[in-house]
Amino acid sequence: MKNIFLLSIFFLSTSTFAQKDSTIVLSWLKKAADYRYDLPDSTRYYANKSLTYSKKIKYEYGKVKAFYLLSFIDGTAGNFSRSIDYADSCIAVAVKNNFSLEHADIINIKGSVYSDLNQFDKAIELYNESIEISKKIDYQRGINIAESNIGVCYYLEGDYQKSLEYFLSTLKYFETTSDTSSYLICIGNISSIYLEIEQYDEALEMVEDGMKFCKGVPGQQLRYADMIAQTALIKSELGDHQKALSLYFEVIKIQLQANDLRLAARTYNNLADVYFKMNQIEKAIQMSEKAIHIVDSLGFDYDYAEYTKVLAVILNDKGNYSKALEYAEASLKIDEKIGAQDHIFQTTLLLAEIYSHLKNYEKAYELQLKYSILQDSIFLRSSDKAMEEMTVLHQLDKKELENARLTETNEKNEIKAQLQQEQSDKDRARMLFLVFILVLVLVLAVLAFFAYRNKKKSNEIISEQKNVAEKQKTEIENQHLILEEAHKEITDSIKYAKRLQDAILPPLELVKEILPQSFILFQPKDVVSGDFYWFEKGSDQVFIAAADCTGHGVPGAMVSVVCSNALNRTVKEFRITEPSKILEKARTLIIETFAKSDREVKDGMDIALCSLNPSSLTLTFSGANNPLWIVRKIEELTSAEKSDETILCNEHSALLEFKPNKQPVGLYSGMKDFEQEKIQLKKGDTFYIFTDGYADQFGGEKGKKMKYRPFKETLLSLANTSVPEQKEILTMDFNGWRGAFEQVDDVCVIGVRV
Questions:
Q1: pLDDT band, very low/low/confident/very high, at 388 (cuts 50, 70, 90)
Q2: How far apart are CA 87 and CA 478, in angstroms?
């Protein structure tokens, strides 16, 4: 969400234009001005009251200020047509009574309305008019307010260079005044430009300067909150959504304490945007509904239309099309009421998409047609000026055409004489041409004879070459048949290898029966895999493991059969139940199996092995190069864990990591005994074991590895998500990250909630 602000001015003179019975009007106007950002209905009430009484007592200054406030409040609420009417009434009173300062101020407000309507040329024209009036009375603040608003117009048009020039110019002025609020708004606007052109360091530097300037300054809490909100927006753009959330919640606290509910609503809307980017749709909906409730109760129609459209987008993305339709239609209704053409344009397209999802294709087509008409009308309006220029050019072309016709008549007479001369020359040339043709035919006949004789010889050679080519073709076809047969045999062998590997994998139904709150994400790189998952039920404990064998494809699958068999024999034949001892015995069996080879074979596996006692919730872990992760609720952490800065946390959960032994299960130069760790789980904990294929996948915009930090953050964000949904989200995230890149390794991720 963009953070860019227009500036406005309002102050009351208590002496210059005061007259009998005016004191009560000034008190009402002060109340109206105080309420203009928080309680628009109260502002409208006191402004109308002031206007009525001012008309009664013929108090011109009261009328001009009341019209100003009514124009301002309707403009911020999105009632643009009525705002312009009030502005014109205000201008009439100001001109009649020579209120030059108020005249400059209300033209500035009128320009802001046209800016909101995206009619930037008209807005800039009005701001320049305000500047000219302000220069005549040396009203420096009015000049700089209007110039800052011109900068906003150029920003919204995408001309960041011109926008920055205006903002830097007005910033110099406000640095020399006591107008802290306007100075900080300029700081925020400049930061927004740097953000748009992706100069994030400069954007943050501007915001930090603003925060230092206003921190602790009385009456500037809301401007300080704006600086924090701008920082949150930058962090969100950089992908640090967690930091953005914490900053926005800090902003909300300040805005609610200051009772600035409209700004609080905007921040809730920004929170919805961050949660939407994090794919936390339910929270995004909650934040969006809060924003809508606030502006609805305050009566800010323009904000209400914008926020309901945002919620419609979120619900449409979630697949709740009927609810999305309800909010989108509410948004469009208000947009049409207040004449917000740009919003109407966007919301119409959104409604067409929603109706398409609802399979109401007739309505979708109707809205798509309306969207096209709106698009054409915008294009036609932008083309008016060009058409006028073309008309002028057409008039000039007509005069040039008349002159050209006179010249053409003279040229025709000259051409006629030339043609007669040319005809005589052509007759002579035709005779010479016929003679030339006769000679040429004789030459060609001689050449044709010799060509025929040569061609006959060539055909004999070609025929011989064709016979040779036919023999080669037959030989190639035979070789192709041999290759096809070989390919079929290899494919059949791989399919058979897959059947063998599937036979060693435990049925997912068995795992689900014993561990109902669990999932196994298993995605081989090829038909067969070097990764495998292993599961075995003991008398009072359950063994589960995720293993990554040397290699992938057929070689990896062959090693996986050996390693899986070693685990099965260790538990079933040798009755070993401690994870560290299981790995040691499996290592011995694997080395013995490969020792029969003539050469030294160092193949083996990396593995994370757990033994779970479901009744006591004790988990014993031993790993070979692969760790164990546990996601736990914040309130369940010990004091030592809470103070450990290495533990990754969000607002409700933490991820604990248990390190593996730094050696594989197989022949290794520095072999030593495996260690294990006994962990007391808490109810609601979810533990994860996995191979390296998920985090090592290349993808994203830059084609880099995902790595483990984003993987951890994803699991942490899924703490309150059901186990089946976790598997779906992890699968979608992995495939989305990979995109068009080839999968580089086998993937195996296991999650169990207790």
A1: very low
A2: 90
Work out the angle at residue 738's Cα, subtended by the Cα atoms of residues 353 and 198, and round it to the nearest 5 degrees: 70
Residue 466 is predicted with a pLDDT of: 77
- 3-state DSSP of 27-84: HHHHHHHHCCCCCHHHHHHHHHHHHHHHHHHCCHHHHHHHHHHHHHHHHHHCCHHHHH
> Which are the contacts of 559, defined by CB distance < 8 A and separation ≥ 6?
530, 549, 550, 551, 603, 604, 605
Helix (H, G, I), strand (E, B) or coil at 224: helix
Nearest-10 Cα torsion for 491, 495, 500, 504: 130
CA angle at 503 for the pair 501 and 509, rounded to the nearest 5°: 120
Helix (H, G, I), strand (E, B) or coil at 505: coil
> DSSP E strands: which ranges in 465-558?
518-523, 531-537, 542-549
Whether the pLDDT of residue 391 is over 50: the answer is: no
| Cβ–Cβ < 8 Å for 381, 359 | no
Q: Which helix (H) or strand (E) holds 130?
A: helix 120-136
Say what the pLDDT of residue 232 is. 87
Q: Which residue has the tokens 């009261």?
A: 62
The number of residues making up the chain comes to 754
128: which 2 tokens?
């320049």
- The structure tokens 């698009």 sit at 375
Side chain identity at residue 687, one-letter code: F
Q: What is the largest CA-CA distance in the chain?
A: 126
Query: CB of 685 within 8 A of CB of 631?
Result: yes
- Predicted confidence (pLDDT) per residue in 56-87, tens digit: 888 999 999 999 999 988 887 778 889 999 99
- Among 31, 100, 104, CA closest to 69: 31
Token pair, residue 577, equals 């139940």
- Tell the burial category of 411 from Cβ atoms under 10 Å away from its Cβ (0-12, 13-18, 19+): exposed
Q: CB under 8 Å to 547, separation ≥6 — which residues?
A: 531, 532, 533, 534, 560, 563, 564, 605, 606, 607, 608, 691, 748
Structure tokens belonging to residue 57 = 């007592």
pLDDT tens by residue, 529-558: 889 999 999 888 999 999 999 877 778 888
